[in-house]
Amino acid sequence: MKLHRIWGVILRYNYLFKHSLDRQVDAFYWPTVDLVLWGLTSSYLAEKAANIPFAVLMVISGLVLWIILWRGQYEFTVNILEDMWNKNLVNMFSSPLKLSEWIAAFVLLGIVKSAVSVSFAAGVAFVLYKANLFAFGFKLLPFLFLLLMTGWWVGLFVGGLIVRFGGKVQNFAWSMVFLIAPFSAIYYPLAALPVWAQKVAMFIPSSYLFEGARQVILTGVVNGKMLLIALILNLIFTIFALLFFRASFKKVLDRGLVKLY
Amino acid sequence: MEILKAKNLSKQFGKFKAVDNVSLSLQEGEILGLLGPNGAGKTTTIQMLLGVLTPSKGEVFYFGKNLKNHREEILEEVNFSSTYTNLPWDLTVWENLHFISYLYQIENRKKRVEEMLELFKLKELQKHPIKELSAGQVTRLNVAKAFINFPKVLLLDEPTASLDPDVAGYIREFILEERKKFKVSIVFTSHNMAEVEELCDRVIFINRGKIVADDTPENLAKTIEVCHIELLVKQKEKLISYCKNNQLNFRQEGKHIIVDVKEKLIAEFLRNLTANAIEYDEISIEKPTLEDYFIQNAPKL
Lengths: 261, 301
Known about the structure:
The complex is a heterodimer. Chain A is mainly α. Chain A has one domain (3-259). Chain A is built from ten helices and no strands. In chain A, helix 3 (55-85) packs antiparallel against helix 9. The longest helix of chain A is centred in the C-terminal third of the chain and has 32 residues, at 224-255. Chain A starts with a helix and ends in a 6-residue tail after the last helix. The relative contact order of chain B is 0.14. Chain B is built from eleven helices and 14 strands. Chain B folds into two domains: 2-221, P-loop containing nucleotide triphosphate hydrolases (Rossmann fold, 3-Layer(aba) Sandwich), CATH 3.40.50.300; 225-297, YebC, transcriptional regulation domain (Alpha-Beta Plaits, 2-Layer Sandwich). Chains A and B meet through helix 1, helix 4 and helix 10 of A and helix 1, helix 2, strand 6 and helix 3 of B.
């Protein structure tokens, strides 16, 4: 891997971010709207049902943590789409750029932009609801990292679908990640899910991560077992997603990169 | 020295064979024209040479090394420009060249980007997103991008399409200059036959995915026996009637009539004009060109 080529790809997407109102809206506007909407809803519910402790904090923290996962996958899927729409993939892959360097650039962009988006959202949550997620400090960090990792394999998988099927499945870039949302128990405890959904959630790493993060926020205790299971599941899914992405790219080279749109 | 070699390249899309057993080679400093009608397989061939399309059969070698196994090393020395791809349209001219420069091993990238902006007269446009540029300006940017990494091999797919004649001429001069200075080897496609004749040392004619001719532009033109005789005559109808009676191809262009006559029959044709009392005020004889070869061969091949 050559760092200058990874940097070249990062530059390309950063220049896009600078010029694209769509991408800026995705990064700041929607998270703010979600926080206002769900924060106010949960404030109201907390007033009416005082027996739900920390209701606002649970919803707000769920929202902020979801941004990490969502952002991790978004950097793969939407940036791939942008290059597909721009017919720029031939420029990229007629250069010495390697597939692994392209992926590395998405991973790095995911880390940086998640950090920016989450800091922004956490700041908004503090200003609006006095919900201080920074107070949990390093205890939340492993959960944040593993959520980002979940975003990467979702992004690789959806990116693979886009590379394989082109514009026909472009809506997956925004929507597919929400398939795992109900099973991730973002706003509610896992026990609140029906039994069949709990069984599905056992295979979704983010379910352990949201549950574990909630535990940290409510009790201050880090559940190492949940972290370990989430890590193992993430590693397995990442390997499969990488293989799928590589196979999809090979497939599109059979048709020709020029024909991907 | 053989810089590029394609061995038995074929590409099949379902039942359609886009490229059929094409073998070609490119010498150091050579400019090779790839000609053929639309859909002949030129762009498919170029894509396989670039590694952005996997051949169904065959191999590509640069500098004696297989592209499949030495992709990274080879593509460091290769670049391309095509009308079939775009650079990101939201990015400015400068940003596009800047990010592309990072995909290659280039010393002092900023300086190289500035050089390209100067050389291709893009300096004043550097802060404009390319979606605001004219087609000709975008083509210039594409060619600038193709030269950014000091390539040893260039694949230029219609690089002067949509350019004004003066800019196209400038690009042609630039290409010839770079070839002279750095011995750049170039594969070139164009629909402008005069341009191909001016630039290319050798031409490969492709049709329906197959190579049907491989020779110098002069030799290909020589295979056409017919010359064009342009005449300004007083009695137009008389000449037209003579051509019709003798089954000679002709066309009218303004006041002139252009008659196609085999080179060895020109003297006889002129004698017959005199014998038939057809007087002309002006005459010019045009030798066959590559365009004649293209027109004669493309439709029926």
